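Lecture notes, continued. The same structure-token format from the folding unit now serves as the input rather than the output. Read the line below as a description of shape only.
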């Protein structure tokens, strides 16, 4: 029996090695045929490509490599090849001049385990479905008139943020801005999406928030299939199975909330009653004359992407802003003075040195919402409080791993109420 088992183990090992070698030679052959069309690239190792040159912080690794190989370079992460652009001139060429050629999105990482494959707006290929969803975002879901209806929601969540921080200030306790800012963004998005708060509410929305965080952590982990292309079908780490389980749990909860909204819609809305994003999406779902017929999966996937953005990138941007301001008292004072006197017009523009929301056709449709939340939160924290770092040190601005460029260490400080500003 043991001899038979050993034979099968050896056979499986031989199959693995053969598959790797065949994959490597095919990639090498194709590379040699297209070598003239590729950007500069560091020397790569068989199978793993340039993974040995990549550290825990992806952006820092790319920055270091760009100093040697230029503003446009080719990087191979195992079986996946990508092109890295790292200056304003190249970024403008990609996002403006060649915008249409870069309008689609390749599958990467954990996308194969997403139960909404084919329904994801963020990763959809450039085509009719993507154009319809983008138009929907800009004209109804995330338009200025729609966001204007929720200004009271943002104001209320901002007040709750100030009250929570003020409680820490009264008691002389440390304030965890990571938790406070994440709660602000999540509650704002939950109330806009399904008319209920999520953080600390112990309801369906609260459970959805927890599942979104789990999905985000699992989705951000590099799959072994991305490194060893032929083994993409195997889930060696088990993260794929966990992600599917979390997504299925999310699906059940959102389905329940959707049914509640459908029942409410059948009874009819009162005159002047505000519709949330879920109500609007269900209207389009039930509209026989809609340009493209939305499915329930389309709705659930869109909401998931919206939660991802709020949980990850928006709160991370606010933490970095507060960390930089606390470490630079002159900039902090200048901002406070500006808030207390007059706030100038919006100056977002198209600066290709800094692209927090992307640009061109695939620019983030939720940029206006994100800026509203960030301006309100950072403005309130600067206007109402002074901040002191524990032990008199400066905020540690070391960047951590992950796609959202999170801080490596929690942003925890002592808030001191600024006179009677708030």
């Amino acid at each position: 029996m043991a001899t038979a088992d050993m034979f099968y183990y050896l056979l499986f090992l031989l199959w693995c090695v053969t598959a790797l070698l065949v994959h490597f030679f095919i990639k090498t052959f194709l590379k040699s045929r297209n070598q003239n069309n590729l950007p500069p690239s560091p020397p790569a190792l068989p199978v793993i490509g340039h993974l040995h040159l990549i550290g825990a912080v992806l952006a820092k690794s790319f920055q270091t490599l760009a100093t040697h190989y230029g503003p446009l370079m080719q990087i191979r992460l195992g079986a996946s090849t990508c092109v890295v652009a790292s200056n304003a001139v190249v970024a403008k060429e990609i996002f403006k001049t060649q915008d249409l050629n870069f309008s689609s999105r390749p599958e990467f990482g954990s996308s194969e385990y997403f139960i909404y494959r084919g329904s994801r707006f963020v990763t959809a290929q450039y085509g009719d479905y993507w154009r319809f969803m983008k138009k929907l975002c800009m004209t109804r879901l995330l338009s200025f008139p729609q966001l204007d209806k929720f200004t009271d929601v943002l104001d209320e969540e901002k007040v709750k943020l100030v009250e929570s921080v003020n409680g820490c200030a009264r008691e002389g306790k440390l304030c965890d801005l990571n938790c406070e800012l994440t709660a602000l963004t999540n509650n704002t998005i939950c109330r806009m999406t399904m008319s209920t708060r999520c953080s600390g509410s112990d309801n369906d929305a609260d459970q959805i928030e927890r599942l979104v965080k789990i999905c985000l952590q699992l989705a951000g982990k590099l799959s072994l299939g991305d490194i060893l292309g032929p083994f993409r079908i195997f889930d060696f780490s088990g993260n794929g199975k966990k992600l599917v389980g979390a997504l299925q749990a999310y699906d059940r909860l959102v389905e329940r909330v959707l049914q509640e909204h459908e029942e409410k819609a059948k009874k009819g809305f009162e005159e002047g009653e505000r519709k949330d994003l879920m109500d609007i999406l269900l209207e389009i779902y039930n509209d026989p004359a809609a340009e493209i017929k939305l499915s329930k999966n389309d709705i659930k996937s869109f909401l998931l992407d919206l939660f991802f953005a709020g949980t990850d990138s928006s709160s991370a941007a606010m933490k970095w802003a507060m960390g930089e301001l606390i470490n630079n008292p002159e900039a902090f004072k200048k901002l406070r003075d500006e808030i207390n006197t007059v706030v100038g017009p919006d100056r977002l523009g198209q600066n290709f040195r800094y692209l927090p929301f992307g640009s061109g056709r695939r620019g983030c449709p939720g940029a206006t919402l994100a800026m509203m939340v960030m301006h309100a939160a950072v403005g309130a924290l600067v206007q109402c409080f002074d901040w002191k770092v524990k032990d008199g040190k400066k905020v540690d601005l070391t960047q951590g791993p992950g796609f959202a460029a999170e801080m490596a260490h929690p942003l925890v400080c002592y808030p001191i109420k600024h006179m009677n500003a708030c």
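Point for the exam: The chain has two domains: 1-34, 128-417.
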